[in-house]
Design goal:
By secondary structure, the protein is of the alpha+beta class. It has 3 helices and 3 strands; from the N terminus they run βαααββ. A hairpin with a 3-residue loop joins strand 2 and strand 3.
Length: 78
C-alpha cells in the first residue's frame, strides 16, 4: 500500500493500529492533531487532504474500526 488512511481517534489509538498491523508509520497520514476526534469522518477528511500527493496507480487502504467490535476496509486504486 502507498497510503493507509485510518479511522483516527487519537495518537494512542492510531499508534496501536500502526503497531498491531505493522504499518509503515510514514504512510499513515493523520488529521487529529489539528481537527481532533472527528470519528469516522476522519477517513474522507484525511483522503481529501492526501489527494494532492496521490498519483495515478497509488494504492490506498481505508481502514475503519468501530469500537473494536467491527472493522471495514476498502482498497482504492487511485
Amino acid at each position: 500500500m502507498d497510503r493507509y488512511i485510518t479511522h483516527q481517534v487519537s495518537s494512542v489509538h492510531t499508534s496501536a493500529i500502526v503497531r498491531a498491523a505493522k504499518l509503515d508509520r510514514g504512510r499513515v497520514p493523520v488529521t487529529y492533531p489539528h481537527l481532533g476526534n472527528v470519528g469516522p469522518a476522519s477517513i474522507p477528511i484525511t483522503l481529501v487532504d492526501e489527494q494532492k500527493t496521490l498519483r495515478r496507480g497509488d494504492r490506498v487502504l481505508l481502514m475503519g474500526v468501530g469500537s473494536g467490535l467491527n472493522t471495514g476496509m476498502l482498497e482504492l486504486a487511485w
